[in-house]
Specification:
The structure holds two protein chains of two kinds. Chain A is mainly β. Chain A is built from no helices and eleven strands. Chain A is globular and about 35 Å long. The chains are: A mainly beta, B mainly beta.
Amino acid sequence: DIQMTQSPSSVSASVGDRVTITCRASQDISTWLAWYQQKPGKAPRLLIYAASTLQSGVPSRFSGSGSGTDFTLTISSLQPEDFATYCCQQVNSFPLTFGGGTKVEIK
Amino acid sequence: EVQLVESGGGLIQPGGSLRLSCAASGFTFSDYAMAWVRQAQGKGLEWVSGISASGGSTFYAGSVKGRFTISRDNSKNTLYLQMNSLRAEDTAVYYCVGTVTTPPNFFDYWGQGTLVTVSS
């Protein structure tokens, strides 16, 4: 199985800050990677797929990059509604696997 | 509007069985692969099982293989998850998920989730 390792597990930031979250795959997954946002008590929301493609309706302050084993989610200017947990997912091969999540908290 | 509505969760004793259902609407259900993803309280997401659009191909996480069965009825626009030999570690919110507007397995639609609690 492909292991997905996210870092950091949590980050404290202020509104307007630039936030970067990384995800590392245990083997090459090309660009078969997604990023999700999840708020407490809610289902996850797809933000980015194919490593860098912004899902329809997602604000442009979110961006993704990377290929192979190393990936990054960047929020260019953190907004109040962005405080949430973010997680990556590989879809290169079954079983599909998720990262452990990164909680973005208010500083 | 795409909607996925799960049902069938509840409290079940270890070793018991439960069948989850997911009613889909707002898209041509028979054209798209579907899956189940679960999340234990305070934990991360875990992909459980997936099924092709026709139902001819199914995939399972190692933790549920041999105990859970995914299926679909395209005439009823409904996805199922038959869960047998349930264990305490299967306790989680189970989400029905679909890939409608994106390439396969990038889950752009999620249900609200149904809670399964395995406990005596």
